[in-house]
Design brief:
Number of helices: 6
CATH superfamily: Flavodoxin domain
Order of helices and strands: EHEHEHHEHEH
CATH topology: Rossmann fold
Strand order of the largest sheet: 2-1-3-4-5
Number of strands: 5
Strand content: 15-25%
Structural class: alpha/beta
Radius of gyration: 16 Å
CATH class: Alpha Beta
Length: 182
């Protein structure tokens, strides 16, 4: 069964390591027959949630006008969400975190979505895997809270400069994960 997969990227660096991870996952998912949409959060202007609780009350997901209202329909259509991101201070970059924070609008607005699955693709400069525990824990808590099935976590540590990922097996693992989605 073909799925609609939304791949949300967090890096402001064009063509960087996490974007390459996203593209590899997308290639694998397309090989498996899935439809994919890549949403580059760093190119968007999404303000933080202000907890006004007027979500979906004015004909759009968020009453504060920003680019989240373009993301909301993609979330509504998706069967799966994949976060492809660098590690920023042990968590998600602000650009991606603002979008994730506004997932709240679906809960407050009592909107349903089809999303049942998720995955995390994360890389960063730190070599020690324990330094990724913050982002991995946040991701797992999001999945648990929203009742999404975690389909996999790809972690590629020790990447400092653009294209360092080409010296690892990270792209192959991301593509294999994308291809394994059923």
């Amino acid at each position: 069964m073909s799925k609609n997969i939304l791949v949300m990227t967090g890096s402001p660096r064009k063509g960087g390591n996490s974007e390459k991870l996203a593209d590899a996952f997308i290639a694998g998912a397309r090989q498996a027959g899935h439809t994919t949409v890549k949403y580059t959060a760093a190119d968007k202007h999404i303000k933080g949630c202000i907890d006004c609780k007027t979500c979906f009350s004015k004909g759009v997901a968020c009453s504060v006008p920003d680019d989240f209202n373009d993301l909301a329909p993609l979330l509504e259509q998706a069967d799966m969400v994949v976060f492809a991101t660098p590690l920023y201070w042990f968590s998600f970059p602000q650009q991606l975190k603002a979008a994730i924070d506004k997932f709240y609008s679906f809960l407050i607005g009592k909107q349903t979505w089809k999303i049942k699955e998720c995955a995390l693709l994360v890389c960063g400069g730190d070599k020690e895997e324990y330094r990724y525990e913050g982002i991995i824990t946040s991701y797992k808590l999001i999945a648990d809270y929203l009742n999404w099935k975690d389909c996999g976590i790809i972690l590629v540590p020790g990447l400092h400069v653009k294209d360092d990922i080409l010296k690892t097996d990270g792209l192959q693992r991301a593509e294999a994960l994308g291809n394994s989605i059923q």
